[in-house]
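User: Predict the structure for this protein chain, please.
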Amino acid sequence: MAEVGRAAVRDPGALLPGGFWAAVAVWLERPQVANKRLCGVRLEARRSVALPRAAAGPRPRSPGEGLGPGQTTGPARGTAIRGPGESQPRHGQRENRREAAAAARVAGGSGPAGEAGVGESEFPASDLDSLWDAFSQSLDGGHPELLAFLSGPAAASQPEAPSELAVVLRTLIPKTGPRCPLAVPRRELVVQDVLNGTVTFLPLEEDDGGNVKVETSNVYQIRLSQSQEEWFISILIFCPERWHSDGIVYPQPAWLREELLARLARWSVESKKSGFKSTLSLISIIKYSKTYQMLKEKYKDMVKVWPEVTDPEKFVYEDVAIAAYLLILWEEERAELGLTAKQSFIDLGCGNGLLVHILSTEGHPGRGIDVRRRKIWDMYGPQTCLEEGAITPSDKTLFPDVDWLIGNHSDELTPWVPVIAARSSYGCRFFVLPCCFFDFTGKYSRRQSRKTQYREYLDFVTEVGLACGFHVEEDCLRIPSTKRVCLIGKSRTYPPAGEVSMDEQRTQYINSRRGRPVSPPSEVSVPLPPRATVGHAGHPDGHQTLDTGAATGRAEIRADQLWLSGFQPREKAERVRNCATLPRDFIDQVVLQVAHLLLNGEQLNTGSASSSSSKAWNRGGSLSLAEVAHELAGETLQRLKRECGGLQTLLRNNHQVFEVVNGRVHIRDWREKKLQRQPHSEAKRRLCSEAFKTRMCWFYSHHPDGCVLPSDSCPFAHGPAELRPPQTPKRKKPVL
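Assistant: Here is the predicted structure, written as structure tokens:
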């Protein structure tokens, strides 16, 4: 046994030992948070057990010899321990039993202290009992060293007292990719001893005959200890001389010491709890990992030909991850319902349409609708159906033959997606990924200061789904975004016969969001939409098309067809409000005004631009944004306030002239820029050379002392003779 690392933990908020068990729960349930080479973990089963008392027994085993059932197959077959290609149990109804009961247990209370939550599984508890019993007998009979390692240092003071343990069987799932295409899941037993403050990880190996045993070569332990008033977290390895690192599931001991230990120490004293589900809790992580890698390889070239102004890597890989999630979700739904045809879908507010393109290419019939056409739509080809049009929630915007409605960052349509799905057909389901906060009409107004705005808005959309009659499930996606929680409505809380009464409740709820008086069920003011027959999943083709006039906004929707007046879809033409569309003469006037304000702070030099000396160059003073705004005319300020960012945005846009740092405005000194310049990549240098001398130097034209840099060093033109025409880069023509 060897201690590979120890970290002292300060506990100003008296968070230990409860915080230690919360940190252990993260490493147990979400190891990918610390180890980026892991895709996730699947928790199979758990039991409460007891360690055997130390006693004399048969010959000790060698450290490398396996411990376990030997020739009995026990839990090694069937549903107990599954291989990577076998089906995974559904986690839809998992309950998170991870609680802060560890501190209460240590203090003498009751409850499953420190136990990590385990989802429902097909792994029979009796099989885990059989596996543990065989392992326990081998400990009692011939491996006192490992028994002492599991018992911890506190066992010596109470040798006769059996320790109460929680044993969890888990499967670690590595990421698949070009560097590790053959990585397979690894299974291990996790033994949590709350009273002694230890958690031990025992790797399991299965031979060709299906026999499972514990391999002692990679056994390690996380331990919490206290010396006087100081707490320590340690990581120990049972047989350091036999430790075998694969670089993925079992890292180097140095990684355990330098990375994992530091994270555990930090997590132990963080009192802030996450209000969200574990990542990818509703689908098979193994299937997701393989599907994501496949889609990433298939669509990675989209990054090279992205024609939009948005960040291609973020949007491409985010939509690839969402598509992978939906494909696995729908695959498991087909297996659960015994369906063969792939689900149809409509993406409301589809944006760049890449998600629609991927799902359609992978065989799901569907289309996307957005109020504004994007350049990239022309790149997808005829097999990707994208429509330009506004959606106004009404009787004309129903999709009775569609299986799933998708709201991926659908903004003002987000709370309406569950409503449209519920009223389209009984079999229509929904998936929403909320981003911006909208109510049924207008922006969402916060009502609870105890929650974050994001958490409160997610609860609101969940409430809408429940009011519409859905069982709403929540999951956390693995995407490069801070807003990555999705809400899913797969089934209803009422039978098909209760559709009429349920829709009356929906109408009451929708009207209540406007603060209007709620009508009795018999006097509903908004007529019920026409009903389609009870839907079913898996339409291979031929779903109903949205009325063209309604989709494009050319046809008027009667007042009695609207579900709620006041809804305003976004404008077709996206208004640019970054000061870029302001008249050039107006911008130049403001720049001159602000520059004169700054230069008047010191005595001005009268030298000409051609004979200026860099030593006497007047940089001027600095003013706060509020002081600058106070000096500008009222009409100018009003015009700037109509732009996003206003005065600050205009000054930042003119970065050749100004610097805005910590709310204060300065004249830019290009000598400092030259001193701070870092070596650029070849692509960056080429871009800079193409832009060299393509714009006039403001300082050469307007500053009383001219430009602080000589002509050959200034990136801007000193006079019309130096101007070069700007070069427009040519884009590759995409081949899809």
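The longest strand covers residues 38-50.
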